[in-house]
Specification:
The chain has 260 residues and is an alpha+beta fold. The protein is 27% helix and 38% strand. The protein has six helices and 14 strands. A five-stranded mixed beta sheet has the order 5-4-3-6-7. It has a four-stranded antiparallel beta sheet with strand order 11-10-13-14, with no helix packed on it. A three-stranded antiparallel beta sheet has the order 8-9-12. Residues 1-18 have low confidence and may be disordered.
């Protein structure tokens, strides 16, 4: 419930501060695959578009964006896609591909196509990054040049964008009345939760950047109704972690604080 409240606040803040809408495009990427922006958004994806020259000044902000995007892969696998587009579609695809790969951004979708326009989102940049999500096709982040490298703003924008794609009522119907006791905890904690239906679940502990550091349960069957699970935390260093409960239907993450 706390997570849902945070998501609601994030959405409210962004809806007040940012009413910009995305502009659709349908075009082929550098591998020849066709992409329709609105179809991606309507399917629940968060789309990050990074326009580059490409040039040396584009590397830092683009790589920061890429690293922040990749940090969400464990918690929300496949949720965020990153497009890297040539700014004016006048650089050949092989150059875009080699530039991204050589600068540590391999898992991106590359474009050199004039259908993807920076001018649809205001002033041009070197680079320019936008974050778009939701069936309303809303823009949650729109920055140029060095302003892109604000990691906190990138994370907050991605959190709000992800929230726009989640059916929070559906998550509450699936798993509800979740609590962690005690929190902060030391040596061990107890996870309590209710399930609407019997489910096979995976439960893991993630670090602050979303990497799995401890697998608690894998494909374990839990009954409908109340469930309780004791988790040993004595091998974790003091700090903030996330408890991830997931299967093929939904992810739910809960913040935990370890104070051994």
């Amino acid at each position: 419930m706390k997570k849902n409240i945070i998501f609601t606040i994030l959405l409210l803040c962004f809806s007040i501060a940012n009413a910009q809408k995305a502009v659709n495009f349908t075009c082929n990427d550098c591998s020849g695959k066709t992409h329709d922006l609105f179809k991606n958004l309507d399917s629940g994806k968060v789309v990050v578009i990074d326009w580059v020259m490409p040039c040396s000044s584009c590397i830092g902000p683009s790589k920061t964006t890429y690293n922040v995007v990749k940090s969400y892969d464990t918690i929300y696998p496949g949720k965020i896609v990153m497009f890297v587009a040539d700014d004016y579609a006048n650089t050949a695809c092989p150059s875009i591909i080699s530039w991204t790969d050589n600068n540590g951004m391999p898992n991106t979708i590359k474009f050199s196509n004039s259908a993807i326009k920076m001018t649809d989102y205001g002033t041009n940049g070197m680079p320019k990054v936008v974050i778009i999500a939701g069936k309303g096709h809303d823009v949650f982040f729109n920055e140029n040049n060095s302003n892109i490298s604000n990691i906190t703003k990138l994370q907050n924008s991605l959190n709000a964008a992800i929230a726009a794609t989640l059916n929070l009522k559906e998550i509450d119907d699936f798993i509800y009345k979740t609590e962690i006791l005690p929190n902060p905890s030391n040596e061990k904690l107890t996870l309590n939760f209710n399930l609407k239906n019997p489910e096979k679940l995976n439960i893991s502990v993630l670090n602050i950047v979303g990497s799995e550091i401890q697998k608690i349960e894998e494909n374990k069957y839990f009954n409908s109704g109340e469930n309780s699970l004791e988790i040993c935390t004595e091998n974790l260093n003091d700090g903030v972690y996330f408890l991830k409960i997931f299967n093929e239907k939904v992810n739910k993450t809960l913040k935990i604080i370890i104070n051994n």
